[in-house]
Amino acid sequence: MDKKFIDDSHKYLMNTYKRYPIVLRKGRGMKVWSSDGKEYLDFVGGIAVNCLGHCHPKVVITLQKQAQRLLHVSNLYHIEPQIKLAQILIKLSCTDKAFFCNSGAEAIEAAIKLVRKYAKEHTAFNKFEIITTYGSFHGRTLAALSATGQEKFHKGFEPLVPGFKHVPFNDINALKKAISKSTCAVILEPIQGEIGIRMPAEGYLKEVRHICDKHGILLVFDEVQTGVGRTGKFFAYEHYDVEPDIISLAKGLGGGVAIGAMLAKDHVAASFQPGSHASTFGGNPLACAAAITTIETLLEDGFILDNCRRMGRYLMKNLERLKRDFSFLIVDIRGLGLMVGMEITTHGDAIVNACAERGVLINCIAGNVLRFTPPLIVTEKDINHLIDVLEDVLGRIP
Ligand SMILES: *Cc1c(COP(=O)(O)O)cnc(C)c1O
After folding, report:
1. Which domain holds residue 286?
2. Ligand 1 first shell, C-beta below 6 A
3. How many domains, in total, are found in the chain?
4. What tens digit of pLDDT does each residue of 71-103 get?
5. Is there a contact between 183 and 211 (Cβ–Cβ < 8 Å)?
6. Which residues touch 264 (CB under 8 Å, ≥6 apart)?
7. Boundary (domain end) residue, out of 301, 318, 343
8. What CATH number is attached to the domain comprising 323?
């Protein structure tokens, strides 16, 4: 059964993903099932997307109801769920206005366009340069790719979009040196995701804010991965006592439905006027309705965010215990909430495959960091199972 699907997958799909030989068909909560009926505990969670777990009943019902009412209309008209979602996000954040799109890369593209336009309108000379960090990930479209500070993603696609400068993450002096008269913005992930869960050094984000203020530079936080409760607060920046001017969101925002958002402070957002930017599908009724229910469910009673914080600590504590037992293999455990990485001394692929055989899905980033981004509803029992499986798998490594 699966073999036929997988053969057809190779035959008909562009080879942009190195996929595991698993065809996923159904999901509920923490679990997914493959087409041949095997059950998996999902610690990938669509890579920080399925924040409420798979097919959360409230999200499913919202989608059914909205699908019967209205699927799509043009942004030439006002759209009820879009207005309501904007209101919710603005209330939760330090920003004042929202723009909706369909993905993380699009949210970053929107931010790049906005900071450039803002700079053109507020300075006499041509201010366009954007500073980002090495190891960052901002998406695959050309400007988002140019913002991404990892050469391996650039290879073959040059020339990139001009006007991006990269500096080491957590290096304030490098940032100070990189700033010039043409710098208009700094784009940062509060916690770097794809490079292997890299935490900001104590005081780093605050210093960056301070420097941006001093030079009249806008600060953009790419919260595509860290946002929507992933770190135990709705936005990761809330942990660090610093406010950005612009925020990008996507991944968890729709609870599994594709939606992105770019949020900005009023004076910045004012640089977008009719014609500046647009998206046919951005802010469509279906995706916005899903996002509203996702956020309302996530924040109801504070239970899920609290669970995220507690389970994040529980997971890290147990991984630390594994680290003591496998000190030759495990180098570091890091993360916040349920965005957790375990750096190992070897390539992670074999471990990921062995876990999948035992019915647990995890993934490996940057070659040697196992990443855990499960739904925020994960339980102690689920984590215990993950740890048992990891212990068994690591114990068999010669
Ligand atoms: C995943 C990710 C993106 C890109 O999002 P897409 O929806 O894949 O375009 C951008 N920034 C960060 C921090 C991400 O983790």
Report:
1. 58-301
2. 103-105, 108, 137-139, 189, 193-194, 222, 224-225, 250-251
3. 2
4. 999 999 999 999 999 999 999 999 999 999 999
5. no
6. 95, 96, 97, 99, 111, 114, 245, 246, 247
7. 301
8. 3.90.1150.10
